[in-house]
């Protein structure tokens, strides 16, 4: 009966862990779906914009009436399948472009040339960039997901090892107690019988029986000590891996997910802003009566904000991007020890391990800081490429020039084949280098956060740092209010955020943004 109870308890513990891991894996799958949906929505948006400007270039004599129909057509499409996208800054610009379309007027030939040879080409390039960047970001995301699966599998392995050794320790303890009872029973019988009453030939047999019991007790005592030591080491490994796993999971949801979304957004808003500014430059050279509407669009373009759109996406899918609850220590068969044991004979081993971690962390932080500096410099280079001010086409509206000269101006500008090939080659080479360094930085920061979690836990265990225990009773013996008890489970998250942001070099704004997301998920 006791064996069945033990097996049931083990299965319950494993089932609880597997359920938690399964939830995280499902969440990771849903994250990719969300990012893929956003990528598809952007591509659809860009395709709509390309079709819009192509149709607009074809409209000439019945310009006003045809443009009104066109605007209504796209407005009705937006009210349908992409209604949820209205919060994004890029979609807001699209709304305003449609509104301004109803006010467009003449100069059809110039607009036709600019729309076909400039705007549509840019939008096609942005579509290519969106697809390419999403694929690269997905590759890194898959790698990060594999890392999460790896650490959870490692945690599962050490947990099973801990369960096995703890079971053996309990069994050895039971056998030792049984031997002690037999010894006490033997001594009790010896005391009741008068030795003088025993026959001479029975006395050696009595002594032999006592010696056998003593040897059995010594053997079981040694076995119990050995199993207890193995159990202690296994529990220590379990707790250390538990801390490392929680740190990696927290770091992924707090920092890596945000970075992955930024990689998907890389250059999208800047490129779209440049495209729309080209459109604005053409439109601003038309009648002054149109300036009021165009000023509204310009303001929306100025407010194209990748950070804001990223936060809106994360808010829209709050349950998917919200960090999960941390892994808790799952005691086995009534084990009351839930901390790393630093008592002999494992204290020396832990101390050596602590110093090794300290030395390793110092080296890794220096190396990762250099990678981060390179990453920042590369990002600045990309930003310079993506924010070049090449959208001014005012020269094309000098009416003293012929059509041939207008085409010459357009061809000699940004959209010339030589400039396109050179700029895109430089951009893609820089992107490849950036993603290489980004992957290297993620790998380094993951290793640092895992080692740092183990280092901090060992530091606390070995007496390097002491923290007050959170009790459920106050100093006067009264129970703590319920709200304080409810908040305590989230204290770990604040510590995790603090440690993660310090070692990842984040600022206070990133910290406050995470707290805002985490708090919304708990309401």
UniProtKB/TrEMBL annotation:
PANTHER family: SLIT-ROBO RHO GTPASE ACTIVATING PROTEIN. Signal peptide: none annotated. It holds the Pfam family FCH. Keywords: Coiled coil. Residues 354-381 form a coiled coil. The gene is LOC113050447. Residues 19-309 form the F-BAR domain. It comes from Carassius auratus (Goldfish). PROSITE patterns: F_BAR. This is SLIT-ROBO Rho GTPase-activating protein 3-like isoform X2. SMART domains: FCH. The lineage of its organism: Eukaryota, Metazoa, Chordata, Craniata, Vertebrata. Residues 200-221 are annotated as: Disordered. SUPFAM superfamilies: BAR/IMD domain-like.
């Amino acid at each position: 009966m006791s064996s069945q109870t033990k097996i049931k308890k083990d299965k319950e513990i494993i089932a609880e862990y597997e359920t938690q891991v399964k939830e995280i894996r499902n969440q990771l799958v849903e994250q990719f779906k969300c990012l893929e949906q956003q990528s598809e929505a952007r591509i659809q948006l860009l395709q709509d914009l390309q079709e819009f400007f192509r149709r607009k270039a074809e409209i000439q004599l019945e310009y006003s009436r045809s443009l009104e129909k066109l605007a209504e057509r796209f407005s009705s499409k937006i009210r349908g399948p992409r209604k949820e996208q209205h919060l994004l800054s890029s979609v807001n610009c699209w709304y305003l472009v449609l509104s301004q379309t109803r006010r467009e007027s003449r100069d059809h030939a110039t607009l036709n040339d600019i729309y076909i040879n400039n705007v549509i080409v840019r939008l096609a390039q942005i579509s290519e960039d969106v697809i390419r960047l999403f694929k690269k970001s997905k590759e890194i995301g898959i790698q990060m997901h594999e890392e999460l699966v790896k650490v959870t599998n490692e945690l599962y392995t050490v947990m099973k090892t801990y369960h096995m050794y703890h079971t053996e320790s309990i069994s050895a303890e039971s056998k030792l107690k049984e031997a002690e009872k037999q010894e006490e029973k033997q001594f009790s019988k010896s005391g009741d019988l008068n030795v003088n009453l025993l026959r001479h030939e029975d006395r050696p047999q009595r002594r032999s029986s006592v010696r056998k019991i003593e040897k059995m007790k010594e053997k079981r005592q040694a076995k119990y000590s050995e199993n207890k030591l193995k159990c202690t080491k296994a529990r220590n490994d379990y707790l250390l891996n538990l801390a490392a796993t929680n740190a990696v999971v927290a770091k992924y949801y707090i920092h890596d997910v945000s970075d992955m979304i930024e990689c998907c957004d890389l250059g999208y808003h800047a490129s779209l802003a440049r495209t729309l500014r080209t459109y604005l430059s053409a439109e601003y050279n038309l009648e002054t009566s149109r300036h009021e509407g165009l000023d509204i669009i310009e303001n929306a373009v100025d407010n194209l904000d990748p950070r804001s759109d990223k936060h809106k996406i994360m808010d829209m899918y709050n349950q998917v991007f919200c960090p999960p609850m941390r892994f808790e220590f799952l005691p086995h068969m009534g084990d009351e020890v839930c901390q790393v044991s630093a008592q002999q004979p494992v204290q020396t081993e832990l101390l050596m391990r602590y110093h090794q971690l300290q030395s390793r962390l110092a080296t890794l932080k220096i190396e990762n800081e250099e990678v981060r500096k390179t990453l920042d410099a590369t990002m600045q280079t990309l930003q310079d490429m993506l924010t070049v001010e090449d959208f001014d086409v005012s020269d094309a509206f000098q009416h003293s020039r012929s059509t041939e000269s207008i085409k010459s101006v357009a061809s000699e500008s940004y959209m010339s084949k030589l400039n396109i090939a050179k700029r895109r080659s430089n951009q893609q080479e820089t992107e490849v280098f950036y993603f290489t360094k980004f992957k290297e930085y993620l790998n380094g920061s993951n290793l640092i956060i895992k080692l740092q979690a183990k280092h901090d836990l060992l530091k606390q265990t070995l007496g390097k740092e002491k923290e007050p225990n959170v009790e459920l009773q106050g100093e006067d013996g009264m129970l703590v209010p319920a709200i304080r008890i409810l908040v305590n489970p989230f204290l770990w998250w604040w510590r995790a955020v603090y440690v993660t942001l310090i070692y990842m070099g984040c600022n206070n704004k990133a910290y406050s943004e995470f707290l805002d997301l985490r708090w919304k998920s708990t309401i």
